Amino acid sequence: MSTPEVTIIVVPRERFQFARESLESLYEQTNYPFNLIYVDNHSPEFLSKYLQTQAEVKGFDLIQTDRFLSPNQARNMGLKMALTQPNRSRYIVFVDNDVIFAPNWLQALVNCAEETDATVVGSLVCQYRPVHTTIHCAGGEYMSAEEFAHFVKGEPSTTLLAGERGKWRINEKTFYQNRPIAEVQAHLKRQPTGFVEFHAMLVRTEWFDQIGLLDEGFSCTKEYLDFCMLVAQSGGTVYLEPASVVTFLTHPPAPTLKWFDLPYFMVRWSDAWERESLLHFQKKWDLVESKYFVKRLKKLGWRRREEMIQPLVAPLRLLSPAVAKRLEKQLVKLEKQLNCWISDRHAKTAMPANIQTHPHQVLSVSKPSDSVTHSIPDRSPLSSIS
Fold first, then answer.
1. pLDDT tens for residues 252-289?
2. Domain 6-139+175-252+352-384 falls under CATH 3.90.980.10
3. What is the pTM for the complete model shown?
4. Which residues contact 360 (CB under 8 A, 6 or more apart)?
């Protein structure tokens, strides 16, 4: 049997409630042959058992961890496995565990890569139900064309104001966000773009030999910008392929969080992870400390506020808006204290993982005290993979 040209790597985005629906959609809507590596990031027991059963039935590789990982940590676990397989696929496709797929989504990504020689190809990403109707990301840009021309050469391209430092200035723009596809259909065409997002992203496997693994300094945000910027400076190209359509289901205002989603959601969108990611992004690329960063640092915790706190106080708004507002502020203050404690506790237990091999292509990632047959460091350069 010939090796499929594509290896799909699925990782958790922020919660687990849509994982089963997403996996079923993947198999129902994907006619193009693929290998699947599924990284199960310390999911609830019922989902963990379901994924083990599906891995046996469908024959995909399953990596299960006993602690929460950031998305890039999870992607790297899958990527290391994909890169060390005897017959590597030509393409890696990253998707999140909350994505619903439209027919022919994968074939369209491969077609674009083959016909344009693109390094990275992203799907047209939608949000909300009904699926595949409202745009979340149709590509985007982070610099003007003039600044970008300097950026790809590694040349500073920004005019600094008094007191500012840095080589480049970020001004992120996501095209057609919140617009119905029907309104902008005429403008949606295959084309180069500044960035696409990891919700559904194809990458030529050979490029990881050149640029290495994903940067795990990005715990929670802007990892897609970092990756596309690295591809651009390395001489690659990024394309949007609107013939490939997916929808992710957790964009705010998302459906109500389930109780089993809360632990990972609070770590995933913790103030600590978001702050670290933003500061790492600014420092790594020597970006100007502009309003772009100031605004995002001031809004730390906004996802938790929108999806955890505001639903609790919403019923009070009909009775007394003033009381509801005061209560919301008090709850936000208490939740931030709790979130700090949770972040500190997670940081103390987030140690390098070890892999234990089990039958049916299921891998369990356990603490170092467990028996292991193969160890994968938390971070390692691509050259160390053997």
1. 888 999 999 999 999 999 999 999 999 999 999 999 99
2. no
3. 0.92
4. 52, 55, 56
